[in-house]
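Checklist before submission:
- one chain only
- standard amino acids only
- sequence pasted in full

Submission:
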Amino acid sequence: MADSTVRLRDRSATEAAIVQAGEAVLLRDGFTGLNVQTIAAQAGCDRKLVYRYFDGTDGVVRLLARQAHADLVAHLAAVPPVEAESPRAFAHHGLLTWFAALRASPLALRLMAWGMVEDSPLLREIEAERNAVLQAWMRERRPRLRTPPRTDVPALNAVLMAAVQALALASQTRGSVSGVVLDDAGCARIEDAIGHLLAAWPD
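Returned file contents:
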């Protein structure tokens, strides 16, 4: 029984080390540097264990995505509800909240960047799960407001969301975009600019 307990503990520790190694490699080297060999080397274990415990890199990435999405859920849940009096006001609140949540999760941003340059069933799965996090939060918080007539709200929302996500990515990778340094002061400028853009959002 004692030997069995030791083996179980060792496996749990090794699994945790492999996941931590995957996160470290992804954050340090990006998705191009993430493979079984680099994960095993970072974890200090035999590469066979990455296959045995996770069925290769994809299994590690799935757990990293789960962790990243849990971080996003926690950040969104910590934001106090607001009394939005118009669709424009709620859109403004939602965009700024998502921008802040993404900036607070480097792991989520790395996975998002990966999905923007490559396509695979796994990356689509991760994107769908990430979108579900935001949609669940919006369903919970969205006030009962009338949808503006003759407005393609999904298309307008897609444009604004794409801009916010690209800015969040730039804040992590390059630190600036189009001459705006994306430090706290720069991100405050971006948030003000989002408010001006939303003037086109009908109430």
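Reviewer check: Residues 2-29 form the longest helix (28 residues).
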